[in-house]
Write a structure and sequence with these properties.
The protein is an alpha/beta fold. The protein has helices spanning 38-48, 61-73, 110-121, 143-153, 164-168, 182-189, 196-208, 247-260, 265-280, 288-295, and strands at residues 2-6, 10-16, 30-36, 53-59, 77-78, 81-82, 88-94, 98-101, 128-132, 158-161, 177-178, 214-217, 223-226, 231-235, 299-303. Strands 1, 4, 5, 6, 9, 10 and 11 form a seven-stranded parallel beta sheet that branches. The chain has a four-stranded mixed beta sheet with strand order 3-2-7-8. A four-stranded antiparallel beta sheet has the order 12-13-14-15. Helix 1 (38-48) crosses helix 8 (247-260).
C-alpha cells in the first residue's frame, strides 16, 4: 500500500478573476474548492493512475470534514487523525498572475504526533511512504527526520517532496527519490543553474548527502532525473498553463506509481512528467484521460553528465 502523509492539509479555494485590483472590489468569474495539501494531491493523482493509496495526516473542523468527504467520494482511503482546531483554508487568486494566501494551520498536540508515528511504525517494507508539504508551527521542527528514521528502521521505502530544510533533514535516511525544482536547488546550494550540467551537478550533491535518486522539475523546460548510473531529460509539449498548483505533486504521483508498477526508471519518469504537465494544463489535478493524452507527446532522452 502507498501511504501519503500531509501534515498540514487544506481546502484550496481557487478564485478566477479577469483582473485583480489590490485594495479594490474584485469579482470572481468562477470559484472552485478542492481538498488540498501536497500528499493529498499525490493520492488523488495516484487514483487517476489506478494506484490505491491511503491518505494520512491531520484534519479538524468543517474544513477537515470536507477533505475527508471529498476523498471518500473519489474512493481514496483515509486514516486521518482528528485535531481540535480547524484545518486551514488557502486562497488562490488567478487572474493575469497567480497569488496565493496560505493559512498557518491548526495546533498539533504531542498526543497527535505520537498517534501518527504509531501509524507509520505499523507499516512494513511492502508499503511505500510519501512525505510532502509544509509543517504546522506546532509540530517539532525535525518531524520529517523522525518519520524518515522510522521508515529506514523498518525498511519502508519513502519519498520526500518538501522545502529546503524539511528535505535536507531526511537525506541521511536515504529517500528513494526527492523532487526539488530548479529554484529550490539554487537556494539549497546558493548557485545559479544555467544549463543541464548545472542541474545534474546540484542533484548529485543531494545524492552525496543520501538521496538515492533526484527528480528536478524545470517547469516549461521539462525535468531531469538523475540516478546512480544515468541521467534523463524530459521534454514536454507546449500548451496553455492554467494551474501550476499541484503540478509537482502530480509528478511525484506519476513516478511512485511507475516504480510501484515495476516500470523502468525512464518509463516511470515519462509517466511522472506527463502527470505534472497534464495538471498544469487543467484547472484541477490531471485525470487519467488527460495523462493518456499527454504521455505520447513527452520525450525522454538519456543525457551525459560529467
Amino acid at each position: 500500500m502507498i501511504y501519503t502523509i500531509t501534515l498540514n492539509p487544506s481546502i484550496d479555494y481557487v478564485m478566477f478573476t479577469e483582473k485583480f485590483d489590490l485594495g479594490g472590489l474584485n469579482r470572481a468569474t468562477s470559484t472552485h474548492k478542492f481538498a488540498g495539501g501536497k500528499g493529498i494531491n499525490v493520492s488523488r493523482v495516484l487514483k487517476a493512475l489506478n494506484e490505491t493509496s491511503t491518505a494520512l495526516g491531520y484534519i479538524g473542523g468543517f474544513p477537515g470534514d470536507f477533505i475527508k468527504k471529498e476523498l471518500e467520494i473519489s474512493n481514496i482511503n483515509t486514516d486521518f487523525i482528528q485535531v481540535d482546531e480547524d484545518t486551514r483554508i488557502n486562497v488562490k487568486l488567478k487572474g493575469n498572475t497567480e497569488t496565493e494566501i496560505n493559512a498557518p494551520g491548526p495546533e498539533i498536540k504531542p498526543a497527535h504526533v505520537e498517534a501518527l508515528l504509531n501509524q507509520i511504525k505499523a507499516l512494513t517494507k511492502e508499503d511505500y511512504v510519501i512525505i510532502a508539504g509544509s509543517v504546522p508551527k506546532s509540530l517539532p521542527a525535525d518531524i520529517y527526520a523522525t518519520i524518515a528514521e522510522i521508515c529506514t528502521q523498518k525498511s519502508i521505502p519513502f519519498v520526500v517532496d518538501a522545502e529546503k530544510s524539511l528535505l535536507i533533514q531526511t537525506l541521511q535516511h536515504q529517500p528513494e527519490f526527492v523532487k526539488p525544482n530548479k529554484v529550490e536547488l539554487e537556494e539549497m546550494f546558493d548557485v545559479t543553474i544555467n544549463n543541464d550540467q548545472d542541474t545534474i551537478d546540484a542533484a548529485r550533491k543531494l545524492m552525496t548527502q543520501g538521496a538515492k535518486n533526484v527528480l528536478v522539475s524545470l517547469g516549461g523546460e521539462g525535468a531531469i532525473l538523475v540516478t546512480a548510473t544515468d541521467c534523463y531529460k524530459a521534454t514536454v509539449p507546449s500548451g496553455k498553463v492554467i494551474n501550476t498548483v499541484g503540478s509537482g505533486d502530480s509528478t511525484v504521483a506519476g513516478m511512485v506509481a511507475g516504480l510501484a508498477q515495476n516500470k523502468s526508471f525512464d518509463e516511470s519518469f515519462k509517466q511522472a512528467v506527463s502527470c505534472g504537465t497534464a495538471t498544469a494544463f487543467t484547472e484541477d489535478l490531471a485525470t487519467s484521460e488527460q495523462i493518456a493524452e499527454i504521455i505520447n507527446n513527452v520525450t525522454i532522452t538519456k543525457i551525459e553528465g560529467k
